[in-house]
Design a protein that fits this description.
181 residues, 44% helix
Length: 181
């Protein structure tokens, strides 16, 4: 009973500084926290990733999430941890794959990064990236001429909303961070 009370007291005062103001990313993070059973105050921060707007390597995407976590924690000094969430792409042999990296950094300097699964982008998206175009600005053409194709509609939804990637990376980072704490 005392342990449960103390654990609840600690978690009630747990604060997360997240390196984004994206409602989408924050909502997915809140969903992860709820599913895991961690109650926390989430403070958003308008910070830069200090990498390109469309990271094209695993290393650059990871560095972007680290930079966001560090900056968020620096901005909210009373937070227990900072979380950075960065969606990016990585070329695996000849094709780009989409994924997310989430990084947690605490005030003791501990750093944990986790990646989501990697999803090979459809040909349309591959072509836009290979043309040097910012993929987020060229999503509307993907479904043209693909009426009533439920699989293509679902792929479009996943790429637009990025939920499976963000959710998985955040969940993995949080579980990894807390399992040995």
């Amino acid at each position: 009973w005392i342990y449960n009370f103390l654990e609840r007291e600690i978690m009630d005062k747990f604060t997360i500084a997240v390196g984004t103001t994206s409602k989408q990313k924050i909502d997915y993070l809140k969903e992860v926290m709820k599913d895991i059973g961690i109650e926390a105050t989430i403070l958003s921060s308008n910070v830069e990733s200090n990498v390109s707007g469309q990271p094209l390597t695993k290393e650059e995407t990871t560095q972007g999430s680290i930079n966001r976590a560090k900056s968020a924690l620096k901005e909210h000094k009373n937070a227990n941890i900072g979380i950075g969430i960065e969606v990016g792409y990585h070329k695996n042999k000849k094709d780009y794959e989409m994924f997310c990296c989430a990084t947690i950094i605490d005030n003791k300097g501990r750093c944990v990064s986790a990646h989501s699964h990697f999803f090979k982008l459809p040909k349309y998206h591959q072509e836009r990236i290979n043309e040097g175009k910012y993929l987020a600005h060229h999503l509307d053409e993907y479904l043209k001429g693909k009426n009533n194709n439920k699989i293509k509609e679902y792929i479009d939804y996943v790429i637009r909303k990025r939920k499976p990637f963000i959710y998985e990376a955040c969940r993995s980072a949080i579980l990894t961070y807390f399992k040995d704490d």
